[in-house]
Design goal:
Blueprint lengths: L10 H10 L1 H26 L6 H4 L1 E9 L2 E8 L6 H6 L10 H29 L1
Antiparallel strand pairs: 1-2
Helix pairs in contact: 2-5
Length: about 130
């Protein structure tokens, strides 16, 4: 549900990642992207309105798309809480009650730290070899 939230690395990071090889880079990027999504997912669960509790319990972070050097992760409600987008954005009859967009704002720095930490760990493992 959250789109257009990008974590961009610097040139040095990209250079080091190229040394890992395509398959390993893809695996590391996926792991790092999911680690970065976790603090946002957890905050969205906290922020979600609670009538039944279903919305908060059905927020997921999952890989939506992969291509060389890029991983896209979607964070948002699953199928059981499909109505989450209506809660977030509102409808003609109901005002918006944002829970996901504020979570991104609240946790974007922590998400970047998690992403960086995961990448650093992978680079350290390669350096040890």
């Amino acid at each position: 549900m959250v789109k257009n939230f990008q974590l961009k690395g610097d040139r040095e990071l990209k250079r080091k990642l190229k040394l890992l090889g395509t398959t390993l880079v893809a695996r590391v990027l996926e792991e790092a992207a999911l680690a970065a999504a976790e603090p946002i997912k957890q905050q969205a669960e906290i922020n979600a309105p609670r009538k039944s509790g279903l919305l908060a319990s059905d927020i997921h972070a999952e890989v939506a798309d992969k291509s060389p050097g890029k991983v896209e992760v979607n964070i948002g409600p699953g199928k059981r809480a499909f109505y989450g987008k209506f809660v977030e954005l509102g409808t003609v009859k109901s005002p918006p009650h944002p829970f996901l967009r504020p979570a991104v704002k609240q946790k974007k720095n922590e998400a970047f730290q998690e992403f960086s930490k995961t990448i650093r760990k992978a680079l350290e493992k390669v350096r040890e070899r």
